[in-house]
Sequence to fold (879 residues):
Amino acid sequence: MSPTPHDLLRDRLPAELLSHTREGVLLVSPSTTGQVAEIMTLAHEAGWRVAVRGAGTWTPGDAPCDLVVSTTGLTAIPRVSPADLTATVETGVPLDALQQRLAAGGAWLPLDPPGHPGRTLGSVLATATAGALQHSRGTPRELTLGCTVVTGDGRVVTAGGAVVKNVAGYDLTRLQIGAFGALGILTEVHLRLRALPEADRTLLLTGPRDQLTRCARHLTEIHLEAAAIELASPRATATGDWVLLIRLLGSAAGTAAEAARITEAVETPVTVLTPEEAHQLRQTISLSFLGIPCAIRLGVLPDGIDDTLDMLINHLGEGPLTAEPASGGIRIGADPDAEMIHLLRRTLAEREIPLTVERAPWALRSRTGHFGAYREGVGALVTGLQATFDPAATLVVPRVSLD
Amino acid sequence: MPSPLDHALLRDLRAVVGPGGLRVRPAELLALTSDGLPTHHAVPRLAVLPATREEVIGVIRVLHRHQAAFVARGAGTGLSGGALADRDAVLVILTRLNRILHIDPAGRRATVEPGVVNATLSEAIRHLGLQYAPDPSSQSACTLGGNVAENAGGPHCLKYGVTTNHIVALDVLRPDGTVVRLGSPSGEPWGPDLVGLFVGSEGMFGIALAVTVRLVPLPAEVRTFLAGFPTVRAASEAVREIIATGIVPAALEMLDQASVRAVEASIYAAGYPTDAAAVLLVELDGRPEAVAAESDRVETLLRQGGATTLRTARTAEERARLWQGRKKVFGAMGRIARDMVVQDAVVPRSALPDILDRVEEVGRFHGLTIVNVFHAGDGNLHPNICYDHREPGARERVLAASREIMTACLAAGGTITGEHGVGLDKADLMPELYSEPSLRQMCAVRHVFDPEERANPGKVIPVRYCREWGKGVETL
Fold:
């Protein structure tokens, strides 16, 4: 009888790293990049199928596999440099724990992704799920300066570096962020940080959706310096109302002046939230996407927001929804079938709007892929890239969907 | 003159671009043997100048049919030898593709051909209250296609980000003559970020036929400070203090005394204090109230840091003059050095004071004058190494000094290039930055776009890391 994955891994790794999932699948929780590489080399050679998991709060851990590799043991923060506003962090670190650690040095990672605050950093970066702050503070791709990745066959590949500017070699970091684990396992990243702002004000506008998007457009036209402008649906806020949240970060004087300008510029009444109220509301919105099986994101130009929202609500119902009227991003929670995703993708592709399935049960995401509706020639490039990082398809990820 | 082997190739290229679109005579090719890196020169096999998108596609399909290598070239202002083609490669010059194809003021997007000059785009949209933010010092000459290839930076990238943060979509012509559209107008990718991968790939994945860029509003208020310091170290420490406050200046530049004196002795004289060991240019922009609050803080930090001269540009003209001085330093240096290598490296910002001391030591050791003018806020150094190429051994000393500076930057946790690219100049340093598996992976990624390695061959990664991959690549 040939040795099982458990037998082989037990010989190579400390026993405490091995356990089983609730479904009885072997679960290994390496604590170093070297261990991840050893596991993947073995898996590649033995032909095992490996699923990668973080804290298990975002992507369901339901992909069929021979072995689950958990990143939750990768919890080191080797370097935080408040003077340089950079940090090096392993990807199993929960985002809330990271923010706490950074705050002690007067810094933060300006990402506000949906989901549980204890999502791992790796989950946020592999899926490139960002919240409304990306409008001003940078997307996950822009905030990740470099990375270490273990490929599907166990090679350790690094890209980028720990400094804020770097063009040495091809930008494999950008390629990895948002690749949904198809190009290897992210184990460590170098991050660009920001200093904690002196002032953090949130303004709330409530009203009909089209009135709020009109307000947001107007504020964009007058060049409002907001850190985030986010529209959220009644299901997202659990208040029964559409709201527009405007977040101002910076100096006390600067944010006070912008808050006054907003109040003057819009007809809708403006409420200034206390920091606790603002935090609570943002948390409610973030968690709302966990109450429904699927989260979908779209990239739209601001002038296409209204039409696209109508279309999405018409097809997917009034689930939790957020939109960034200034930068054009939309996220909607829904419970669609694969045919609906395919239909939406085709329709939206005609308007040059990409649809990404951010979160869904395996039964759906394995049929739709995270991405799809590629332009001619692009699907083949993505497939080719995937093959260079994971030649034997050891990593269990939805294969490229060429719908 | 072309070899017999080239006759068929020339005939086919002529059919695409006409006789006016070809350069084959040695005298014609002489002007194309250099870019902005004076230590390297190469004579191309021939040069072709397509004038339209269709002609570029036609040219690349001919080159594919003939299995000919090629190097795409814009204005030739690159500083790493990336636009040099040797006898085995055809130069494809893209400067005739200089049309702005579309401007969408509401969506803040513009689509341009690759030969559009960087500053031309910003000029064309200024009346709309918009700008294209990345502003390399060569912006009055360099092309957006070249900016995409090198992921170019510039002083104002400190706040606004480098080229890759401003490119949302690309029409890419692959070396086999097929065209793929990457990205979307919103910037959201259709899958893994292939636009991000293509930007900065130094022309080794194909040619950008159309570039869709993000535009940003012109700031409501701009304030520019000029601060002179008694020592380079004091100026470096002031930079560190400003960054650590969380204020993100639009630009934070440093010029050392030698570069200040060169500027002040030239037609670009900007009123910099020539008695200061180092000068900082700090620019804040945004809403007036925010700029006023940040200005107070920056001014305090500059004074506390020991600034002996401190003034603010009072008018737009004065501000323009201060910036002209900074951007024309390289031109001004022509008065004091016959040749100059503009080096490029990045260190953690907190390492600036020590690394500048090291640069000075290296210059002293090799008997070379090295002047520094650089993006201090990013930790992006530009040690400019002055020499005279006619002097025996001078080139070798320059190369040795460059290598020692790069080694020091790597030891400080930095990198070998922040915005100029690897090109020919630094390919040999890549193994000091990346492991063998990482370099092999880069080659494998490149092969997905260009399996025959015909686009800009011999650049960025030492060939041995690509060729030894061998069969592994073919099975991918």
Notes: The first strand of chain A starts at residue 18 and ends at 20. Chain A touches chain B through 85 residues (CB under 8 Å). Chain A is about 35% helix and 25% strand.
